[in-house]
Amino acid sequence: MSKANNPLLDPARRSAETQLVHGGTHRSEFNETSEALFLTSGYSYPTSDHAERLFKGEIPGAHNYSRFANPTVDIFQERMALLEGAEAARGFATGMAAVTDAVMSQVRAGDHIVASRALFGGCRFVVEDFMPRFGVSSTLVDGRDPANFAAAMQPNTKVVFIETPTNPTLELVDIKAVADIAHAHGAVLIVDNVFATALWQKPLALGADLVTYSATKHIDGQGRVLGGIVLGSKKLIEGDLHTFLRQTGASLSPFNAWVLLKGLETLPLRVRQMTDSAGKIADALASHAKVDRVIYPHHASHPQYDLAKVQMAEGSTLVSLEVKGGQEAAFKLADSLAVILISNNLGDAKSIITHPRTTTHQRLTEEARLEVGVTPGLLRLSVGLEASDDLIADLLYGLDQI
Ligand SMILES: *Cc1c(COP(=O)(O)O)cnc(C)c1O
């Protein structure tokens, strides 16, 4: 009787749900069942010689400072890497730290970035406003047509950055087509995969080089902590990206990594429930008299429905809708809701409605907003874990008040 030959000892043989409960676990001498929280900044060494060899990198897996390595953060990174099918990962303090480090670690002054223009606010700021201050120029394109990326590539383009589905209009970018364009020009493709989640879309398998997440969203999913992560090949992650993290220090706190690990255990259950409800909400509102259009990637009315079916296993936990009557109508709807909260987070257990024009996209000019589909009547709904019937009833009541 021995478990030595049990095939399930190999993490690669386990399904995602199992990996998200057990993956990457390293137990301490006490053999605790729950992941240990190593709330420590540093580590002591038995001898000076040991310290010297450790700093030379001669002791693999050893820890010397929690800015760049901590056992609890390690478990989070390994578990996420198993889910994503990535060779390596690094945790960050926030999603924006993850995106900024992913981009900055790949460029030098004189380089160029191509990005889709429909991006999360902070991501667009980094690419459009922040990088040019350091001599890295950028071109933003309409991401719906891969030909626009091809046309924007320059000899010095080192990074292509996309988000799909996009915030807040859930437009799609063809990851495989854009990966081929990036690689033909010697650039790396970075995909911000927050809106699809790691369960419904696998950018690395489609050709992306780096994938980023705001772990604040579905991974925590309960509104408690901020966090981020970047995943990819050992070469990219353990090279410039690790050095950038180590030397600039936007590190993930071990406490937050521990909370995120607890979040990963229930991620498939939560994302499945939220996605099912989102689909039901899209169906319930699609032909409502006061709704101009419902936007949901796996709804047949989505302009890129065919691509959504190929690229995404399911249609996301977000639904956007454009109400008739512009901003006044949108405010009336949001202000009459009893269950759904007015806020700007997403991927949370609590359903959240956002009016992008006056909040997340306020910084942009009206012209730039309309370019990415942020009209006065647009609302973005992040579907939570409440009963879908209650969410639909709440929205129908709100629509009645317009
Ligand atoms: C929230 C979010 C970010 C930023 O993450 P933070 O954890 O808030 O820093 C980046 N990209 C997308 C798509 C997001 O939704």
TrEMBL record:
An example molecular function term from Gene Ontology annotations: carbon-sulfur lyase activity
Cofactor: pyridoxal 5'-phosphate
Record-linked Pfam families: Cys_Met_Meta_PP
E.C. designation(s): 2.5.1.-
Catalysed reactions, as listed in the record: O-succinyl-L-homoserine + hydrogen sulfide = L-homocysteine + succinate
This protein's GO CC annotations: cytoplasm
A Gene Ontology BP annotation from the UniProt entry: homocysteine biosynthetic process
Keywords, alphabetical: Amino-acid biosynthesis, Methionine biosynthesis, Pyridoxal phosphate, Transferase
Residues annotated with N6-(pyridoxal phosphate)lysine modification: K217
Enzyme class: transferase
Region (Disordered): 1-27
Pathway per the UniProt entry: Amino-acid biosynthesis; L-methionine biosynthesis via de novo pathway; L-homocysteine from O-succinyl-L-homoserine: step 1/1
Family: Belongs to the trans-sulfuration enzymes family. MetZ subfamily.
Subunit structure: Homotetramer.
Function statement: Catalyzes the formation of L-homocysteine from O-succinyl-L-homoserine (OSHS) and hydrogen sulfide.
PANTHER family: CYSTATHIONINE GAMMA-LYASE (PTHR11808:SF80), TRANS-SULFURATION ENZYME FAMILY MEMBER (PTHR11808)
Record's protein name: O-succinylhomoserine sulfhydrylase
